[in-house]
Write a structure and sequence with these properties.
CATH superfamily of the largest domain: Zn peptidases
Shape: elongated
Number of domains: 2
Structural class: alpha+beta
Radius of gyration: 24 Å
Largest sheet: 6 strands, mixed
Number of strands: 18
Helix content: 25-40%
Bound molecules: zinc ion
Order of helices and strands: HHEHEEEEHEHEEEEHHEEEHEEHEHEEH
């Protein structure tokens, strides 16, 4: 007799997802965190997990979460199960979703099944992965055996780049284990790298005057031109660099082979009226940092570029998540890919994300080797957009992948 292939209960998975989607954990403002955590805790307890509801103290929230759009208490969940295994696997996903604005074909908070897909805000990013995880765990605990001790982290405010979720748990020492799976991703590739992000602004100073005698003032908008030109010259240098981390399958199809650094001017703001010489012009933008670069060097490079200019300006940096790069030869990476092969029927490519991940913060601080792999597809799930969707077969496939990954 061939060994039985453990399957998730597909109906149970769909019921879970239906309920999870119905919690409007929209960030900003970041609501219903307590409600969803209170619903999840008994589910994990019944499976034998020791759960912790981690509430962020209000004073920490006030000090660290300065985004004024965020309101209310922050509850994260940690659920641990020890099976006496040698190694502990940390599994992470976020509970919040982006707002569901615009004209959806269906109610975004009511799971709707149509033509082999389910629709709803968060089905792909990343509530579908959470439903698949619970269904996979249930099947494994009832009929199988776990290979790893587990530590599941379900968190808040990822979608606003907030601190209250994985970063906060990292700083508290809650990210503890030998291996990590971040489910905030796609099933197109296994992601083992990502770009870091630095946001910057330059305020160019001038002196206001009547524009009829503009020679009496200093035009801050016009003085911004050499600043922009210098940044555009640097952009060429920066964007000629390439990472060793391969690009995603979706970008590869567009001819992009590897992760690329970016320097962008994305906002400009200056002037009050046509006939007033402006005394101030603000440029804002970001710098995406590949794993081979350092955040400090990237900032120093911008500083050195602007320094020689004969312009009065103030430059500020707001460093965000660092870049991430996991050794592609690590045994864990191979293990994840092989589980995808067995569970979903294809051997996934390794790739990097052009965007930045809070996972990178946890990986940098803890050194735990991490793979990012989730449900949903980059070119069809329309995450953060209208009619976010995921294939039903991918939800079940993802649960099958988890079973293959976790089964002893
Ligand atoms: Zn996400």
């Amino acid at each position: 007799m061939p060994e039985e292939i453990l399957q998730p209960d597909k109906e149970y998975l769909m019921d879970l997802l239906k309920k999870i989607i119905s919690f409007k954990t929209v960030a900003p403002p970041g609501s219903n965190y307590q409600e969803i955590v209170d619903w999840l805790v008994p589910i994990f307890r019944e499976m034998g997990f020791a759960t912790q509801k981690l509430t962020m103290p209000r004073e920490v929230f006030a000090a660290k979460c300065t985004d004024s759009r965020l309101v209310g208490d922050r509850f994260n969940m940690r659920a641990d199960l020890s099976v006496g295994a040698e190694k502990t696997l940390v599994i992470y996903a976020h509970l919040d979703v982006v707002p569901a604005e615009g004209n959806w074909d269906t109610d975004p908070f009511q799971l709707t099944q149509k033509g082999g897909r389910v629709y709803g805000r968060g089905v792909s990013d990343c509530k579908g992965s959470i439903a698949s995880l619970i269904a996979a765990l249930k099947a494994l605990l009832e009929r199988g055996k776990l290979k790893y001790n587990l530590s599941v982290l379900l968190t808040t405010d990822e979608e606003v780049g907030g601190y209250s979720g994985l970063c906060y748990l990292t700083d508290l020492g809650h990210v503890k284990g030998d291996l990590m799976l971040c489910m905030d991703g796609f099933c197109d590739d296994v992601v083992i790298g990502s770009n870091g992000i630095i946001t910057w602004d330059v305020v160019v100073h001038g002196r206001s005057a009547h524009s009829g005698s503009s020679f009496l003032g200093i035009n801050a908008v016009e003085r911004s031109i050499p600043v922009m030109e210098a940044l555009m010259d640097l952009k060429k240098v920066v964007q000629a660099r390439r990472s060793a981390v391969p690009a995603s399958t979706a970008l590869e199809a567009m001819g992009k082979k590897s992760l690329m650094p970016m320097l962008n001017i994305t906002m400009i703001n200056g002037g009050i009226k046509e006939n007033i010489v402006p005394d101030r012009c603000t440029l804002r933008g970001d710098r995406r940092v590949i794993p081979e670069e350092s955040m400090d060097e990237a900032m120093a490079e911008i500083e050195m570029t602007l320094k020689p200019l004969d312009v009065d300006y103030d430059l500020k940096f707001y460093p965000g998540y660092p870049p991430m790069s996991v050794n592609p030869e690590h045994k864990w990476v191979a293990e994840v890919r092989e589980a995808v092969q067995r569970g979903m029927g294809f051997y996934p490519r390794l790739s990097g994300a052009q965007g930045s991940l809070d996972q990178a913060y946890a990986t940098e601080k803890t050194g735990i080797p991490t793979c990012v792999f989730g449900v949903g597809r980059q070119l069809e799930s329309n995450i953060h957009g209208l009619n976010e969707n995921v294939r039903v077969s991918d939800l079940n496939g993802f649960a099958r992948f988890l079973i293959e990954l976790l089964q002893a």
